[in-house]
Model the fold of this input.
Amino acid sequence: MPQFNINIATGRGLFPVTIGFEGERIDSITYTDGAHASPTRLLIPSPVDLHVHLRDFEQLQKETVSSGTRAALAGGICAVADMPNTVPPVADRETYERRLELMSHDAACDFVLNFCVDDKYSLSQAASVDPFFIKVFLGETTGSYVLEKGLLENVFMLRKPVAIHADIEGMREAIKYSKRYETPLHICHVSRREEVELIARHKDERITCEATPHHLFLSGGYTVKPPLGNVNDRDALWAALGTTIDIVASDHAPHTLEEKEHGAFGISGVETMLPLMVTALVRGEISFKQFYAVMHENPKRILRSHGFEFGFGIGGRADFSIVDTSETYAIDPTTFHSKAKHSPFSGMEVEARVVETWVRGKRFFTNGVCTNEARGAPIPALSKEP
Ligand code: NCD
Ligand code: ZN
Ligand code: ZN
Ligand code: ZN
Done:
C-alpha cells in the first residue's frame, strides 16, 4: 500500500498527514507531527477543471483529446469537463456517443462530457443523453453555435443541468428560468462586477458560477470571450471567490498561433491555472478557505450534485496533485503539453510547480512527463445507496 507523508491543503490551512491508499481509493489519512513532510510540497486534493475545450474531431491543429488531457495532467488537473462547441458540435446523440468513444480511447485524465443545444433538433436530441451540462451559447464565440431565439425556456424545461455562455442580459433570463423550472444553472466565465452583483442577488442552491484565471489576473491585451475586464471587475471577482463565485475553471480554449494572430478567441489555460492559484495562495492573496472552496469543495459539490462520484477523502478516489513551492520561475509556454504553446501569462513569475498528478491511485504525471499509466476514464455515476 503506497504511503505519502505530506502537507495537505485544506480550508483551514496546511496540515501534515500520512495518506495511505489501497488500489484506486484512499484508505487512511492520519495527522502527523510533520517531521517527514517537506515544508515546500503540498498536496492539492482532487483538482478538476470544469471548463475545457479539447477540440479534436476536425480541429486537430488546435488540440486533440490526447494533447489536451495530457496538458491537464501537466497542470495538476485530475479530471476535465469537455465543452461541446467542436466541429462538428456535440449537439446530437450520435456525435455525443462518438465523443464518448473518442474520449474513452484517447483521454489521459478522467472526464465528463457536455452537450450543446442550439436549435430545435439538438433540443430534441438532448432528451436522450445524460451529459454533465447542457451547454447553451447565448452570445457569439468560437464555433458560432448560438441558441436560436425563443428556445431558452425550452432548454430549462428539460430539467437537466444547464451551463450558459452569456452576457448579463442572458444571465438574467437564465436565472429566471432556472428558478421557474427548478433547473440547475451554471454561469460560465463571469467577468464583470455587475454580473457578480446580479448573481449575488439571485443566487440559490441551484445556481453556480465560475471565474477564469485570465479574468482574475489580467485586464486587457488578449483576445478572449468574454473580453477581459478592468481592475474594478477583477477586484470584484477576487472578492467573490468562494462565496458568489463557486469555482475557478480555466476555459482552456486552444488555437494555433496563426489563428490567434487572426483574432481567434481563447487562451491555452489548463496548464497555468493551478500554478497561478497556488501562487495567489502562498502569497496570501487568497485565504486557504477561498482556495479550498474554488479548487476543491465546490467543483466536487457540483459534480456530486449532478450524480458523479468524485472527491478526495477516506474511502474516496485517490485523485490529487503535488505542487512544489520552493522556487520562483517564469511561465514558459514552450514547455506546454497543449498544442497551443502560447499564453498571455508567458514570463509571469509563479511560485508553484506541479510535480506529480495522481488519478485513482496511480501516478499519471511525474518529472514533467505523463506516465504509461495515464489512461483516462469517464467519471462514474454515484452509486445509489440501498
Ligand atoms: C472559447 C473557444 O474558443 O472555444 N473561447 C473563448 O474565448 N472563451 C469559447 C468560449 O468559452 O466562449
Ligand atoms: Zn472503442
Ligand atoms: Zn464561453
Ligand atoms: Zn469556453
Summary: The mean pLDDT is 97.
